[in-house]
């Protein structure tokens, strides 16, 4: 993932695609920031990790997309369509690095299967099931929607 990102940064520089280059640099900076924080835990103790995993990178990218979607709504409400369009372009660049997103039916099936597999009975099991969903489907599932589906399944 990191190699692809670095290669794409070089390509964007050569082609003069400023929006793509800026977005790729934002992604790279966010990854480097997370790499630095991976060196220490919350108490300041060394973790022995140099870099975050590809799974962590996918999760980071999903958060970046979520932030941009929220910004789009804010910009549109303020009448700043130019800034909203810029956010849409950034989302397209980031999404190119994520695996194919699951449809709602696929998400519902994955949630239902996991609830049955883990023998989850009520809302007290929600955290455990969500953790398993994130472990298995990071990058391909919208966990906001999955959370709602999980609540329905556990009622």
At CATH level 2, the architecture of the largest domain is Orthogonal Bundle
| Overall number of strands | 0
Described by the principal axes of the CA atoms, the overall outline is globular
**CATH class wording of the largest domain:** Mainly Alpha
Order of helices and strands: HHHHHHH
CATH topology of the largest domain: Hypothetical Protein Yqey, Chain: A, domain1
Q: What is the number of helical segments per DSSP (H or I, 4+ residues)? A: 7
State the domain count.
2
Query: Are there runs of 5+ residues with pLDDT below 50, and where?
Result: none
The share of residues in extended strands comes to under 5%
CATH H-level superfamily of the largest domain: Uncharacterised protein YqeY/AIM41, N-terminal domain
Task: Walk me through this protein's architecture.
This protein folds into 2 domains: 2-95, Uncharacterised protein YqeY/AIM41, N-terminal domain (Hypothetical Protein Yqey, Chain: A, domain1); 104-154, Arc Repressor Mutant, subunit A. The radius of gyration is 18 Å and the shape is globular. The protein is built from 7 helices and no strands. Helix 3 (54-77) packs antiparallel against helix 4 (81-95) and helix 5 (104-118) packs across helix 7 (143-154). The N and C termini lie far apart (39 Å). It has 155 residues and is mostly helical. The mean pLDDT is 90. Helix content is 73%, strand content 0%.
């Amino acid at each position: 993932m990191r190699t692809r990102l670095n290669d794409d940064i070089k390509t964007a520089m050569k082609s003069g695609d400023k929006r793509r280059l800026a977005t790729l640099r934002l992604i790279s900076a966010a990854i480097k920031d997370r790499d630095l924080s991976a060196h220490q835990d919350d108490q300041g103790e060394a973790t022995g990790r140099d870099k975050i995993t590809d799974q962590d990178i996918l999760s980071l990218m999903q958060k970046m997309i979520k932030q941009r979607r929220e910004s789009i709504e804010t910009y549109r409400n303020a009448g700043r369509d130019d800034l909203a369009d810029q956010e849409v372009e950034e989302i397209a660049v980031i999404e190119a690095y994520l695996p194919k997103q699951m449809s709602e039916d696929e998400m519902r099936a994955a949630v239902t299967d996991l609830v049955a597999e883990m023998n989850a009975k009520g809302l007290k099991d929600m955290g455990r099931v969500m953790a398993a969903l994130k472990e298995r489907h990071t990058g391909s599932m919208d966990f906001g929607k999955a959370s709602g589906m999980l609540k329905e399944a556990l009622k």
